[in-house]
Each structure stands twice: as structure tokens, then as C-alpha cells.
């Protein structure tokens, strides 16, 4: 599918180019318009030609060209005008029949229009022109996405924008939005996120990485993706760094905003479920009355009552106001964004139970594919996303400035999940596995996340050679899930009569075929209620000293400095299982949720206090990181410079849990120091071509949850997790080489390669939970347990190209990545469980990632359009402890479209459509699936006899319409 669509886009592009060349055979006047000093193309300049009463006007296109096609033959007077530039003199140019006349024009800036020039200068900070200059002039290997590119893309979230950047793939949340980035095949844990260059904490209850879908794209001035590190950058970003540069004060009064609406196609076919949030207790009973056993009345039922309706339209809006005061010394900006969205998902999933892999070369089906039950779920999620930024800067004089930034973002999700859990019996009915019982579960959940960052920094020049800058940052991230409630009812099923029929399956030679099904009454089962919240606080300080010198007649800049971060993480988790009332040995027959009765009796009375008192998920974690560095940037020649240096980072960690004192890992203290050298070299082949090469050493610190020996059974996940206090941090050697070519303001061509060698990589492995005493064969409950898996390598090739042909442009990027790691896997040999080596890719690494876009931009009429295709190849979603039972994510192809049109000088209308192909999220196990895919006893939702589908989620397309304004 992806190859076919890419071919069609390429064919269309070639067709349009051929048509363009053919039309040029008529009499034509064309050329380029550029700045006389900088040679930069002056996009949007007006070109005027006249011959007597014959007059034509056009504007300079994105590639810097203009043209007049099919004009009457004759001699024309041509002049060019542009805001901030002197109108050119009139040039005489002749349009000769059947020929093309070329006139290239350069323009001088108008020194008397300084205010206009300043406006143009500021606007370029958000432009594609500025993004290309950042890539060209950066000390690092980076990719930059401008605010202009974000605005015309089909995306409204930072995370979705990043999915289109070269070398990046994403994982997706239950709403289908991109959530976390995987850079160059390095799992999301290997990447860091910055706001204005400062690392921020994560609200995620288990991980360090930031859920990027919390950021509205409209708050961002540009996005920088660093793929190599210099010594002045923190060393825990082996895949890359995502730096979100927020909007700052403009050079003049600026007021702009947006209002839009939209709808999800999913709700064309089913209703949206909602619940009353007013009765949700923000604190658990144990927090309200510490040490007191909770009564059933402490768990109100009202938030479990759901309503089915058609959702209202989605709403999103934003407003930005900024200006400068006090003779332009003081700059102030405020920007706010609000989104209220109704999203959903239809999901099918099964859980792994039998897990010992088959003998090597065995073509029979593995017992792992004989699932005991399946889950069919419908998600209905209301998302409220809030984002605000405030920026104040003051310029004392040309050598001293200070800036104060404040960023607050919040993502509140209110979700209903309706689940049908089919537990299978030993018979088949109507061609599918028959059920033994059916559970219907209703879960209501409030998921509240926010990040607050306050940053104060200053830049000071003491003398010509000496300068320094400093930063103080205070950040806090919170995540709250008050009263994650789940209500369960269950009824039994059994066949009325059966006949035995041969299947041809050697593992199951015959099966009982039922002629009918009988069902028992529906009973009330135990109820689950969970309260959890965590707070992650960072207090950071940075200092960088710079000294300019001349060595052997060449410029050199020496830099030294350091940073210190004090991080505290507090985690609270308290779960309750409310036993259903048993009357005379019989479970309660279900009538309504309000009528259901629960009571704590006998041994169940211990459950009334919840899990908090002895739960290791309740912990306090402290981490102090001290980093010091020294580096030099030296120009060996006019074209060649090198940045080299050494960074040292000391990590000190301490945690305390609520585990009993005799439990190993109740508390822990971990300390280590890393020395991280790096070298970045750039050689300018020409003014617009360069070669870059780099080496840097980096690290990965385990997450807090990975070090705590606790079993965490979050209700939203199919499998729980369990930490290990013996986990080691990862050390990575990184090598990078890239060729860059910038033939035009918007055009670029980049090709490069990278190699990474990982010592003690960390991956989460699916296996039996050690804390729960799992059997040696891995039967029973399964948990993701982090582990160090020896050493691994990861290398790849990256290509990024963008070219405009007049108003039509094409953009493509492709990344090939290959990683290898060899680990021991459990396997059944001669009916005995043993271990063998298996080589596989790293978790999260897709061999092939690609994006292709067809672009149209006409500045004369203010029209922009973009058709975008994204492809991510198969990758391991979860590593298994068992041979050939890793869980793989199937390849995915996403098609999106956006268009916007300028109406008058102040307004733009736009339309966006996402996921036009209704691309599902699909997980599989690469096992023979012949008998589960077809025959008398097949399982539902199986896609192929060659693999077993263990999850299949559908999100459907989304549509958005809106208007932007600028005054």
C-alpha cells in the first residue's frame, strides 16, 4: 500500500513537471529575484511588466522564481517591488515568439525603512527560511520544524508534527494520537524533551520520557531535533533531543489566534459514552481517614453510571498577544490554547498465558496461541488540553539581557471503557470458539496530567573576549488518577448439545460442536477502585562561560560550565477490591449498578484499608545530577571547524518504599559517575554544502519505576510491571556522518549514516512475575520486567529531501535502521524447558521509516495544501522471555491532508483530515496460526494463518475546520 501511494505521488509530480516544461515552449519571461547582499530569494516580491496597455503582475514563488507564460510577443518594461526594499529600475526585456527570455533581478534593502526591515527579520524566526538556516549553521546535526510548517501541516499536536521528521517514528495512545517519539530506532526511553533548552520532568507514572501529546502545536515557535550532542548538553539523550522553542515577544504589536471545530468518524457508527465526574473523590478513603478501614459507602457508585449520546463537535481555540515597550527594551508575550475533543477507539485484545516456545523448526501451532479469553473494548474519551505560555525579556544594553519564561500545559482525559471479556470453553459454536463465561466491565477514569516550568536566564558580555550565560529553572509535573473505577458483571454459557468433529489439528484432533447455547443469570462480581498520583519536581541551575581567542591566526572559543539538578519524585498508589455480597452461598443477581451491594467480611476486612500500607508503588525517590564540562570550538580553516570536549556527570539516587523492612529492595542508594567525550566536525564544501561528522558518548538512566521492586497492575494496561533494584544504567557510543545541501531557501538534501554501540541496554521483558512466585515455565500472570541484555548495536542510513518547482513542492524522508541483540530465551526441547540464544532487533526499532508529502503553495492567492503519507515498518512492541514469542507491531501507513486559504489581509480558513486510510494499530506473535485462523474452532479477529493477532485497534479518520486571524 505505502509503495503504491508513493509511486502515484511521484508519477503525479513528474507529470506536473513535464507539463510545466511543455508550457515553457511558448513565449515566456522568467527569472529569479534575490537580495543583493545575502543572495537570499525574496519570496512574495511583486514583479510588474507592461507593454503599452498590456499589463501583467505576478509574485516571486517559493523557489525564488517568477514567470509570465503565454504572453503576447513584444518588448516589456519590468520592475520589481518588495516591502523593505527599493523598487528596481525598469528593465527592458523582449518576449520572443516560441522562446524563453530570462532576467534575474537583485534588490537593495531600503535603509530608510528600518521598521519594516525589523518586522521582516522577526517574522523569519517562525519561517521555513529560518528553519533551514538553523540546520545549516548549527553546531550539531539537527532537524528543525518551523512554526510556519506546523501551521500548514495536518497536525494540531506537537507529537503528530514530530512523526513527520526524518528518522522519527512514534507510538500512539488509546486515542490514536502520537504520544512518544522513537528517534533512529532508539526506544523512547533513550530520548529527552526540553522547553527552551531546559529539561523538564515527566508526569508519566512510570517513565522519564514526556508524553508529547500534552503540547498543543500552536504554542511552539519551532521544534529542534538534535541527533548529536556537544559537551554543553546533558548526556542522557542517545537517540536524540526534542527541544520545544516556545513563542517569544515580537518586535511589534502582534495579535493572532485561531478557532476551529471537528469530528471523529468513529462516532458516525456508534455513540459516545460519558460519566458524571462530580462525585469522584480526589483522595482515596485512606487519605481522607488515615488508618481507618473504609466502608462500602466510601465508594460512591454515581461515577460508574454512563450515558450514551452523540458527542458534540470538537472545539479548539488559541490567542497570542505580544508587544515591545520602553524603546523596545521590554518585550512581553502571552499565548493560550484550549482544546475540547471527543475521541474514541474500538479494540480487540488477548492476553498471553502459556509462554514456553516450541522446539526450533516446529511448524505446529504454539500453545501460546490457544488463548483462554479475548477482550472487545470500546473507548470513549473526552480530552481537555490547556496550554499557556508567558514571556518577558528585558534588554539593559547590547551586552546584557534577561528573560523570564513560564509554561503551563495540562491534558485532562475523562474516559469510559466498555469491555466484553469472553472466556472460552472446550467447544465450538457457529464456527468460532465457544465461551464458558462472559464478563461485561464498565470502567470510568479521570486521567489528569500537567507540567509547569518557570525559567529565568541571562546573557552577559563582560568584554570582547569574555561572556557568560546562566539559567535557573523550577519545574513540576503531576499525574493524578482519582478513583479509577471498574464494575463487573458475569454470566455463564454452555452448549445445549454437542457432536464431536475432527479438526485436522494434531494438537486438537477433534472438537465438540454445539447446536445451541444456554446462559445463566447475570451476577455481580467484585468491584475495583484505584487512586494514584505522583509529583515530579526539578530544581535546576546552569552556568556557561565563553572566551574568544585567536590561535595560530584562527578563531577559537573556549567554553566551560556545569549544571546541577535536584529531582524528587513522590508516588502514591492505593487499590481496593470490593467483594460482592454473597447471600446463602449465591452471588448477587445483577439488576442495576446502584442496587449492587458490597461488604468487607472476615478475611476481606483487610481489603478495606487498601493496598497503600504495604505497597511498594508508594515511594519517594530523590535524584541529584551534577554535570561539568569543558569544550573548544576551533576554526582550522575558513571552511573547517571542530568542537571537542569532555563532560562528566555524577548521579546520586535514593529511594524509600512502603515495603516491609525484611523485603529486599525496600530502600536503595545508587551512585555512579560517567565521563562523556564528544567531537563534532563540520567542513563547508561550498556556501550551501557541508559535511558533518561526530562522536559522542551518552548514557541511559533507569526510570524510578524500573528500580523499585514493586508489582504495578495499572488498570489501563494488559500486563502489569515489576521493577528490579539491580538494574544497571546503559552506556552508548554514538557515531554520525551527514552530507547537507541547501540549494534554495526551502530546498534541502541531506543524507547520512549513524552507528551506536550499547553496553547494558535496558528493555522490558514479558515474563512471569518473580514477586508473585511464578513457575519456572512462566505460567500464570505475566509482567513486564526490566533487564540488562548484554551489548547491542544499532546502525542506519537517513535521507531527507525537499524541492519546490515553482508553487509545487515534494518532500520525502527515509530512514533505514538495523539493530542486533542476542539474548537467552526459554524453549521446550524434548518436553524439558531450557534456554537458547535468539538474535533480534532492539525493542521499538523499525527497519524502515518514511514520509512523503506533496505540497502546493501560492503566495499570490494565499493558498497552501499538503498531502502527507507516513510509513513505519514492523517493530518489536514487547520483548518476551520465551523463544519466538516477542510481540510485534505490524507495519502502518497514515495518510493526512490539509489546506488553508488566506481571506483578506487578516484571516485564514483551513481544513485538516487525519488518518484517511483508517490505519489500525495491530500487534501480532509470529507463530503458525493455521487452526486459529480458519476451521471449526477459530478465534475472532485473526488476520492471517502466518501470525496470531493479539491486538487490533481502530481509530478512524478525524476532520477539522477552522479560521485563523492575525492583526
Sheet with the most strands, sense and barrel status:
22 strands, antiparallel, barrel
| DSSP, total strands | 54
* Tally of helical segments: 8
CATH class of the largest domain: Mainly Beta
What's the CATH topology name of the largest domain?
Maltoporin, Chain A
Through-space gap between termini = 44 Å
| Helical fraction | under 10%
Describe the protein in words.
- By secondary structure, this protein is mainly beta.
- It folds into three domains: 24-110, Carboxypeptidase-like, regulatory domain (Immunoglobulin-like), CATH 2.60.40.1120; 117-247, Beta Complex (Ferric Hydroxamate Uptake Protein, Chain A, domain 1); 259-351 and 361-487 and 507-607 and 615-966, TonB-dependent receptor, beta-barrel domain (Maltoporin, Chain A), CATH 2.40.170.20.
- 7% of the residues lie in helices and 57% in strands.
- It is built from eight helices and 54 strands.
- The chain has a 22-stranded antiparallel beta barrel.
- The chain is globular, with a radius of gyration of 31 Å.
In a nutshell, what does this entry contain?
By secondary structure, the chain is mainly beta. 7% of the residues lie in helices and 57% in strands. It contains eight helices and 54 strands.
Amino acid at each position: 500500500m505505502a509503495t503504491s501511494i508513493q509511486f502515484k505521488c511521484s508519477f503525479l509530480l513528474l507529470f506536473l513537471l513535464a507539463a510545466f516544461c511543455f508550457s515553457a515552449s511558448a513565449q515566456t519571461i522568467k527569472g529569479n529575484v534575490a537580495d543583493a547582499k545575502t543572495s537570499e530569494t525574496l519570496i512574495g516580491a511583486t514583479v510588474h511588466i507592461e507593454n503599452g496597455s498590456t499589463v501583467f503582475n505576478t509574485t516571486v514563488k517559493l523557489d525564488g522564481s517568477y514567470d509570465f507564460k503565454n504572453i503576447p510577443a513584444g518588448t516589456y518594461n519590468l520592475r520589481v517591488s518588495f516591502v523593505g526594499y527599493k523598487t528596481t529600475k525598469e528593465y527592458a526585456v523582449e518576449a520572443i515568439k516560441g522562446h524563453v527570455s530570462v532576467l534575474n533581478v537583485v534588490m537593495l534593502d531600503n535603509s530608510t525603512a528600518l521598521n519594516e526591515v525589523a518586522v521582516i527579520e522577526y517574522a523569519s524566526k517562525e519561517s521555513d527560511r529560518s528553519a533551514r538556516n538553523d540546520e545549516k549553521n548549527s553546531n550539531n546535526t539537527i532537524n528543525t520544524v518551523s512554526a510556519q510548517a506546523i501551521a500548514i501541516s495536518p497536525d494540531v499536536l506537537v507529537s503528530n508534527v514530530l512523526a513527520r521528521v526524518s528518522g522519527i517514528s512514534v507510538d500512539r495512545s488509546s486515542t490514536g494520537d502520537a504520544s512518544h517519539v522513537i528517534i533512529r530506532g532508539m526506544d523512547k526511553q533513550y530520548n529527552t524533551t526540553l522547553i527552551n533548552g531546559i529539561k523538564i520532568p515527566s508526569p508519566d507514572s512510570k517513565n522519564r520520557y514526556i508524553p508529547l501529546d500534552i503540547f498543543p502545536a500552536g504554542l511552539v515557535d519551532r521544534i529542534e531535533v538534535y541527533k548529536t550532542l556537544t559537551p554543553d548538553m546533558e548526556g542522557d539523550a542517545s537517540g536524540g533531543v526534542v527541544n520545544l522553542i516556545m513563542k517569544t515577544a515580537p518586535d511589534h504589536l502582534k495579535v493572532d489566534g485561531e478557532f476551529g471545530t471537528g469530528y471523529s468518524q468513529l462516532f458516525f457508527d456508534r455513540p459516545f459514552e460519558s460519566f458524571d465526574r462530580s462525585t469522584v473523590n480526589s483522595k482515596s478513603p485512606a487519605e481522607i481517614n488515615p488508618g481507618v478501614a473504609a466502608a462500602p459507602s466510601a465508594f460512591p457508585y454515581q461515577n460508574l453510571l454512563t450515558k450514551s449520546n452523540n458527542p458534540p463537535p470538537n472545539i479548539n481555540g488559541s490567542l497570542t498577544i505580544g508587544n515591545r515597550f520602553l524603546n523596545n527594551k521590554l518585550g512581553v508575550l502571552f499565548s493560550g490554547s484550549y482544546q475540547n475533543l471527543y475521541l474514541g477507539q474500538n479494540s480487540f485484545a488477548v492476553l498471553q498465558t502459556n509462554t514456553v516456545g516450541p522446539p526450533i523448526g516446529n511448524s505446529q501451532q504454539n500453545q501460546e496461541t490457544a488463548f483462554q479469553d479475548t477482550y472487545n473494548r470500546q473507548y470513549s474519551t473526552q480530552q481537555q488540553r490547556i496550554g499557556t505560555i508567558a514571556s518577558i525579556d528585558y534588554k539593559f544594553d547590547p551586552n546584557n539581557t534577561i528573560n523570564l519564561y513560564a509554561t503551563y500545559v495540562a491534558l485532562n482525559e475523562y474516559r469510559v471503557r466498555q469491555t466484553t471479556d469472553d472466556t472460552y470453553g472446550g467447544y465450538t459454536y457457529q464456527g468460532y470458539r465457544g465461551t464458558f463465561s462472559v464478563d461485561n466491565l464498565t470502567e470510568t477514569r479521570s486521567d489528569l496530567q500537567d507540567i509547569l516550568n518557570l525559567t529565568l536566564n541571562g546573557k552577559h558580555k563582560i568584554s570582547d573576549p569574555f561572556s557568560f550565560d546562566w539559567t535557573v529553572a523550577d519545574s513540576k509535573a503531576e499525574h493524578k488518577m482519582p478513583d479509577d473505577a471498574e464494575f463487573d458483571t458475569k454470566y455463564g454459557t454452555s452448549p445445549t448439545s454437542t457432536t464431536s468433529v475432527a479438526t485436522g489439528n494434531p494438537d486438537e484432533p477433534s472438537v465438540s460442536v454445539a447446536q445451541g447455547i444456554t446462559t445463566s443469570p447475570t451476577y455481580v462480581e467484585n468491584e475495583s477502585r484505584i487512586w494514584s498520583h505522583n509529583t515530579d519536581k526539578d530544581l535546576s541551575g546552569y552556568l556557561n562561560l565563553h572566551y574568544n581567542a585567536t590561535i595560530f591566526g584562527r578563531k577559537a572559543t573556549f567554553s566551560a560550565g556545569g549544571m546541577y539538578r535536584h529531582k524528587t519524585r513522590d508516588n502514591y498508589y492505593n487499590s481496593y477490591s470490593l467483594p460482592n455480597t454473597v447471600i446463602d452461598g449465591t452471588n448477587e443477581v445483577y439488576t442495576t449498578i446502584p442496587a449492587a451491594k458490597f461488604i468487607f467480611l472476615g478475611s476481606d476486612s483487610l481489603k478495606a484499608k487498601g493496598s497503600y500500607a504495604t505497597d511498594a508503588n508508594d515511594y519517594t525517590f530523590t535524584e541529584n545530577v551534577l554535570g561539568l564540562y569543558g569544550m573548544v570550538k576551533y576554526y582550522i580553516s575558513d571552511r573547517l571547524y571542530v568542537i571537542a570536549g569532555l563532560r562528566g556527570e555524577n548521579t546520586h539516587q535514593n529511594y524509600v518504599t512502603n515495603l516491609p523492612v525484611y523485603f529486599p529492595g525496600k530502600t536503595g542508594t545508587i551512585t555512579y559517575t560517567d565521563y562523556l567525550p564528544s567531537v563534532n566536525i563540520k567542513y563547508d564544501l561550498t556556501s550551501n554544502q557541508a559535511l558533518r561528522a561526530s562522536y559522542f558518548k551518552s548514557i541511559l538512566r533507569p526510570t524510578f519505576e524500573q528500580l523499585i521492586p514493586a508489582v504495578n497492575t495499572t488498570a489501563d494496561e494488559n500486563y502489569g510491571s515489576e521493577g528490579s533494584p539491580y538494574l544497571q544504567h546503559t552506556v552508548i557510543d554514538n557515531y554520525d556522518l551527514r552530507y547537507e545541501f541547501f540549494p534554495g531557501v526551502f530546498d534541502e538534501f541531506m543524507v547520512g549514516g549513524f552507528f551506536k554501540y550499547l553496553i547494558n541496554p535496558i528493555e522490558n521483558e514479558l515474563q512471569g512475575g518473580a514477586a508473585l512466585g511464578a513457575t519456572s515455565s512462566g505460567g500464570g500472570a505475566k509482567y513486564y520486567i526490566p533487564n540488562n541484555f548484554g551489548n547491542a548495536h544499532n546502525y542506519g542510513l537517513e535521507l531527507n529531501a525537499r524541492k519546490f518547482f515553482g508553487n509545487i513542492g515534494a518532500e520525502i524522508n527515509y530512514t533505514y535502521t538495523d539493530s542486533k541483540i542476542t539474548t537467552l530465551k526459554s524453549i521446550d526441547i524434548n518436553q524439558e524447558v531450557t534456554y537458547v540464544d535468539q538474535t533480534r532487533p532492539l525493542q521499538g526499532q523499525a527497519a524502515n521509516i518514511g514520509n512523503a508529502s506533496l505540497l502546493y503553495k501560492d503566495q499570490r492567492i494565499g493558498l497552501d495544501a499538503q498531502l502527507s503519507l507516513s510509513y513505519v515498518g514492523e517493530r518489536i512492541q514487547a520483548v518476551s522471555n520465551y523463544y519466538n514469542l516477542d510481540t510485534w507491531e505490524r507495519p502502518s501507513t497514515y495518510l493526512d491532508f490539509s489546506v488553508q486559504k488566506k481571506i483578506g489581509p487578516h484571516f485564514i480558513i483551513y481544513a485538516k483530515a487525519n488518518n484517511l486510510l483508517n490505519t489500525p494499530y495491530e500487534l501480532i506473535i509470529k507463530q503458525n496460526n493455521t487452526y486459529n485462523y480458519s476451521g471449526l474452532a477459530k478465534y475472532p479477529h485473526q488476520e492471517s494463518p502466518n501470525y496470531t493477532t493479539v491486538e487490533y485497534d481502530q481509530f478512524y479518520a478525524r476532520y477539522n475546520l477552522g479560521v485563523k486571524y492575525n492583526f
